């Protein structure tokens, strides 16, 4: 066998080996090709592809940023600790239907650049933390009402919505991925920590989050 033929066979065998190794890796790891290459990877259930689901969840198509994911993890850890450490039976309980929303146009009708973008009915900016801004029916939960929602954290009623009537609440999230991964839509028992006076200020919300845990 000539030297050139031997080299050709070795090259072919190497290529076949690498191809087999690649197929095995992607099959076992379930990592998409686009992710391996470092390109953008759309959520398989991207909300743009499912308008009925978008309407059902009441959320917009905003993708998650690394810092948002880190902040979300921190909030989740605190909420989990609160659920275990506080005796929630001391508070009145209400069963509600809770959905999630973001500040984007598909949830609020407003886009970045709009002076009212990200501003709640109460006038304070939307905010996600241990104490987050949420929307509710003010006849059911007046502005300033503090609720504890298991799996979400404290919700401070600062916003309203035409579809949020009676025993419905809308929970603010920074991104659409958080709505998908952390909430969606569910019926949940919530705890009424403090009944609101009908108003809430940004300073009050900041103060609540500075304290992190406040039991009335």
UniProtKB/TrEMBL annotation:
<dbReference type="InterPro" id="IPR051933">
    <property type="entry name" value="Resuscitation_pf_RpfB"/>
</dbReference>
<dbReference type="Pfam" id="PF06725">
    <property type="entry name" value="3D"/>
</dbReference>
<dbReference type="InterPro" id="IPR010611">
    <property type="entry name" value="3D_dom"/>
</dbReference>
<feature type="domain" description="3D">
    <location>
        <begin position="132"/>
        <end position="193"/>
    </location>
</feature>
<dbReference type="InterPro" id="IPR036908">
    <property type="entry name" value="RlpA-like_sf"/>
</dbReference>
<keyword id="KW-0732">Signal</keyword>
<dbReference type="GO" id="GO:0009254">
    <property type="term" value="P:peptidoglycan turnover"/>
</dbReference>
<dbReference type="GO" id="GO:0019867">
    <property type="term" value="C:outer membrane"/>
</dbReference>
<protein>
    <submittedName>
        <fullName>3D (Asp-Asp-Asp) domain-containing protein</fullName>
    </submittedName>
</protein>
<dbReference type="GO" id="GO:0004553">
    <property type="term" value="F:hydrolase activity, hydrolyzing O-glycosyl compounds"/>
</dbReference>
